[in-house]
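[Q] Does anyone have a clean structure-token version of this?
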Amino acid sequence: MTYERFEDLPVWKAAIGLAEKIYALTERQPFRRKYSLRDQIERAALSVSNNIAEGFERGTTQELLTFLYIARGSAGEVRSMLCFIERLPSFKDLKSEISNLKSEAEGISRQLRAWAESLQNSEVKGQRYLSEKERKIVQQKKDREKFLETLKNYKK
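[A] Here you go.
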């Protein structure tokens, strides 16, 4: 399946959801006086979805790959910070929530790795490199996929 907008990407949706949950977590009492910790985890969490979006909007597969790896690094940073927070006594009542967030961040990392691997094995270099003839071929393939999807829906 091809996506026209980054907002439709399942991994972007998961990443923006993780950021929302991190922001909700940092509103909790244990973060009240830990300004730098709060700021850092919020920035890292938001960086995941932002880098997915920026990479998607770039014109080449190589640029997309670069931003996917940056997003993956940010997901790892979120996990690392959650591991640290989990060790602090003032966060002991949030262990379950923190554990769930670590799992979500890890799932996002796996999705990003799989996407990056599929792109590395792709012959497509990105929109910026397509000639007019290649653009028409790509558009015909997209139109064909849409048509076949429409046919599937009629069979149901």
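[Q] Thanks! Anything notable?
[A] The chain has two domains: 6-124, 126-156.
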